[in-house]
Amino acid sequence: MNEQLQKAAKIAFASEFSFYLKAHYFHWNVEGIHFRELHDLFGTIYQEVFDSIDLFAEKIRSMNTYAPGSLSRLSMLSRIEDESSILPAEQMIAELLTDSNNIVKIFKMAYDIAETEGEHGFSNFLAERMDAHRKHSWQLRSSLK
Length: 145
Prior knowledge:
Order of helices and strands: HHHHH
CATH architecture: Up-down Bundle
Number of domains: 1
Largest sheet: none
CATH class: Mainly Alpha
Shape: elongated
Strand content: under 5%
CATH topology: Ferritin
Number of helices: 5
Structural class: mainly alpha
Radius of gyration: 15 Å
């Protein structure tokens, strides 16, 4: 298996896991007049992403490499910035929107490598994940208007 694809897959996985964690963090800590709506939106997003994590790790394992699982390794590989502040609700939405759009770009890079390597099962998985994030981005963008 191509080491470039293995590395891209691990970066994409760690970034997805980081996005999940941030969405869950915002779900717990959102406040304000739109609390219920945003609490539910963030919950829907983190749950959808979480549901993909195990399959994602199994895809990496099928590439004859190991899925990252420690917080330090995930943090090292992730291209999604950590957030430790309690942000105003609108900033939470904007940050998740930026991150979701970035995830699509990260997945696209891994997708292109997978296609070049003829790993169409993995590229199909990434295409589905890109579609899921485009939907998340649309919902977040619409919440900012």
